[in-house]
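Human: I would love a firmer grasp of how sequence relates to backbone shape in proteins. Take your time, and here it is.
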Amino acid sequence: MTRRPSRLVRVLSPALAAGTLLSIAACSDDGGTDGARVPGVTASQVAGKRQTPSPTATLSTDGARTALITEADIEDDWTQVKDTEARNWHDSLLIGTVDVSDFLTAEAQASDCRRLLDSLFDDDLLGRPSGASELRGFQQGDSRLLYQVASYDRTDPQDSLDWMATLPEKCDQFTVTDGGERRTVQVIAISLPAVGDARQGLRVTVQGSTGGNEATLTLDVAAVRVGADAITVTAGGLDGDENDSAKQAVQQGTQRLEDVLAGKSPAASPG
C-alpha cells in the first residue's frame, strides 16, 4: 500500500553530515521508572485526578518569554543558541515511511506512530498553540535541547498528554524506511519530576543508517501541563540520552511558568 512518507526526526544541518547528529523532539510521563512501559495508562491517571490549576492569568508573549529557562537552569556545558537557529533546526530532514506490517492493528497503530514522528519534526507534540508561544534552544557537543512554553487556552493539552501515555504500548518498536535504508524506532516511558498539573515523558530511540553512516539517536521528550499552558522539552542526540538535563529543564521550567502565571518574578536560576 502506498502511503504518504512520514517525516522522522530532525537531524543536524548538512555541514555536520559527516557525523549526522539527529536532532530534537518532544513527549512526557507522569511517574514510573526510566525505561518502564506503561501500557494503557493515561497521563491523567498517572497524575491522579485532573486538578483545577491555581494560576488563572492569561499567558502573554512577554510572560512566555520570561518563563523560558536559561543555561544556568540546566547546568553542564549547554550553550544557548540564537532563537532563529533553534527554530530552523529542522531544516535538514530525515524522511521515512512507517512500516505498517509491524503493527497488530496495522493502519491505526501506524497512524499514531506517524503522528509522533511528525510532531517531533514539527515541534508541536501538544498540537499547535492557540495563544502565546516562545522557544529557546541549547547545544552541548553533539546534543541539543529545545525548550518551549505555550498557551493552549482554546484547545486541551491534556488530550495530547493522554495520547502520549499510550505510545510506549502502541509504538513500542517499529521500522522506518527511507531510500532503502531501514531504521528501528523504539518508544519507552520515562519518569519526570512531580510538577505541574499533569506530565508525560518519553524516550525515542532511532537506530540504523543515514547517508551510509550507522547512527543511534536518543531523545528524551517531556511535556508538563500547568492549567491551559504547557512546557515541552526535547533533549538528546548521538552522544546518548540527556535525561538529567531534561529533568532539570522540567523542574526549573515548570516553576518559572507557575511564577509568571501567579504574577511573580521567577526566582534566580540555581547556577
User: Anything to note?
Assistant: The two ends are 54 Å apart (CA to CA). The first strand starts at residue 6 and ends at 11. Residues 1-55, 90-95 have pLDDT under 50 and may be disordered. Helices lie at 43-47, 61-66, 71-74, 83-87, 107-122, 157-170, 243-261.
